[in-house]
Amino acid sequence: MKPLLSEYRNLVVLRTFSKWAGLAGLRIGAGAMDCRAQPRTMMGMKPPYNVNLAAEVALLASLSDTGILLDRVDAIVKERGRMYRLLCEIPGITVWPSQANFILCKMPDGRGLEVYEAMCRRGVFLRYFDNDLLRDYIRSSVGKPEETDAVVAGFRAALGVD
């Protein structure tokens, strides 16, 4: 998106380091913008505390090791595709395409909590949604192949699919 900065004066491109750099919880990221007014506006909205030293050190270490980090991103993207394909094979589940490090699935109507609780009993902890917009939805992070296999096997077992 950065090449569009010169074309759109009001564009702000933000990048978190939480997932791809493994710095979740440190609340660190970067922003790029073309207009001089935008940084002032953003600084006016930020919390009163700046980035802490631990986050800064971790960020600099990550930036010196981007090859390894990008290899991890490639592995997650590959595994996300495999996970998506396997989940789509399970009857009754609606799987939403994803460009993130998670996949959102709609369980059969009224069975979301049942499936979620069955997964918890198996030691597979996912994010369950129970609100008007996402009733019966479960979100699974993309991880290692064996973790994908555990999610798929757990869904199949909970839904009684061979």
From TrEMBL:
Residues 4-152 form the Aminotransferase class I/classII large domain. The keyword Transcription regulation does not apply. It comes from the Eukaryota. Pfam families: Aminotran_1_2. Its EC number is 2.6.1.9. Pathway: Amino-acid biosynthesis; L-histidine biosynthesis; L-histidine from 5-phospho-alpha-D-ribose 1-diphosphate: step 7/9. Belongs to the class-II pyridoxal-phosphate-dependent aminotransferase family. Histidinol-phosphate aminotransferase subfamily. This is histidinol-phosphate transaminase. It comes from Geodia barretti.
